[in-house]
Amino acid sequence: MLKVERLDAFYGDSQVLHGVGITVGDGERVAIVGRNGAGKSTLLKSLMNAGPRVSGLVEWQGENLRDMPSFRRVRLGLSLVPEDRRIFGHVTVAENIEMARYAAGGNALPAAVVIERFPMLVPIKDRPGGRLSGGQQQMVAVARAIAARPKLMMLDEPTEGLAPVIVEQLARDVKAACVETGAALLLSEQNLWFARQCTDRLYIIDSGQIVFSGDWPALDRAPDVKQRYLAV
Amino acid sequence: MLFTIINGLATGMAVFLVAAGLTLIFGILKILNFAHGAFFMIGAYVAFMIVGSNPPSLWLFLLASVAAGLVVGALGFITDRTVLRRLRDVDEAYMLIATFAVLLICEGAVKLIWGVNYASINPPPLLDDAIIVGSLFIPTYSAFLIGFGVLVYVALDLAIHRTWLGKLLQAISNDSWMTGLLGVNVPVALTLSVVASFMLAGLAGGILLPNQTLSPVLGGSYLLLAFIAVIIGGLGDIRGAFIASALLGVIESASSVLLPNIPGLATYVFVVVFLLVKPQGLFGSAST
Ligand SMILES: Nc1ncnc2c1ncn2[C@@H]1O[C@H](COP(=O)(O)OP(=O)(O)OP(=O)(O)O)[C@@H](O)[C@H]1O
Ligand SMILES: [Mg+2]
Question: Domain residues for A146?
Answer without folding.
Answer: 2-229
